[in-house]
Design goal:
single chain; alpha/beta; Rossmann fold; 7-stranded parallel beta sheet; 9 helices; globular; binds nicotinamide-adenine-dinucleotide
Length: about 250
């Protein structure tokens, strides 16, 4: 595989789950990867894994809710690898499960701050770095970005916002050769999905999966494959779109 040969990529939330799987696939595709996460030890382990396979990677500790961290992240990619071609803005948190009136303002701001404002911060600096030569950006939304997520109002609002941000920026930056898309995962086997299942009514995740077409949860790699494709030149006619990768949950 060499679909990303010579490209420089940023992946946020790359220490675990879907982000980790994408960072590994990007590196196997030939990209130099900046592994960005707020968790250093697991992030460094991903860098070591990439290096062990003969790839090039760098860890950068970031909290995407900080604009300063996101600016520093893009600068680190440019300083170390000379440019920025690809960004997978994926870091996200689920928050707690409660009725809308009980979500709480602090919780609301925290979820929006990471899941939506975090992507905005990253995009502002990524777009500036890509404008001169073009690039590809993929943002992680969710099935909760296109339909209701009862008892997760803040999360659903943040993910609906990701799709609006993605579409609007795509309209603006097509002329600069920058394609911008979103992915909408369903239930994918990661720490976040486990955490959500534990916080929800027992059996509700199983019921959700039973109602989906493929009747199972996805592997992180199955979501990452879509991201790899969207970031590659094979997706040269694809922008301003959001793609379900949910085993048919929303079909
Ligand atoms: N797993 C699912 O079922 C599922 C479904 C739909 C959408 N998603 C979305 O996929 C994305 C990745 O989630 P995952 O399932 O791989 O979860 P995960 O918990 O396995 O990984 C998330 C990673 O993001 C990092 N992170 C969290 N907050 C951060 C911050 N403020 N700054 C930097 N890094 C931060 C975490 O440290 C972690 O390494 C999220 O945006 C999530 O909302 C996941």
């Amino acid at each position: 595989m060499s679909e990303l040969q010579g490209k420089v990529a940023i992946v946020t939330g790359a220490a675990a789950g879907i982000g980790r799987a994408a960072a590994l696939l990007f590196a196997r595709g030939g990209a130099s990867v900046v592994v960005a996460d707020r968790v250093e030890e697991a992030g460094q382990a991903v860098v070591a894994e990439i290096a062990g396979e003969g790839g090039r990677a760098l860890f950068r500790r970031v909290d995407v809710s900080s604009e300063e961290d996101c600016a520093g992240l893009v600068q680190a990619a440019v300083d170390r690898f000379g440019r920025l071609d690809i960004a997978f803005n994926n870091a996200g948190i689920a928050g707690h499960v409660s009725k809308t009136e009980d979500q709480g303002l602090e919780h609301w701001h925290r979820i929006l701050g990471v899941n939506l404002t975090g992507i905005f911060h990253c995009m502002v600096h990524e777009l500036r770095a890509m404008k001169a030569h073009g690039g590809a950006i993929v943002n992680t939304a969710s099935v909760a970005g296109v339909r209701a997520a009862p008892y997760s109002a803040a999360y659903a609002a943040s993910k609906h916002g990701v799709i609006g941000l993605t579409r609007s920026a795509a309209r603006e930056y097509g002329r600069h050769g920058i394609r911008i898309n979103a992915i909408c995962p369903g239930v994918v086997k990661t720490a976040m999905a486990e955490e959500l299942a534990a916080a929800s009514v027992p059996g509700s995740t199983e019921a959700l999966l039973a109602a989906s077409i493929l009747r199972r949860a996805g592997e992180p790699e199955e979501a990452a494959e879509l991201v790899l494709w969207l970031c590659s030149d094979k997706a040269s006619f694809v922008t301003g779109a959001h793609y379900m990768v949910d085993g048919g949950l929303t079909a």
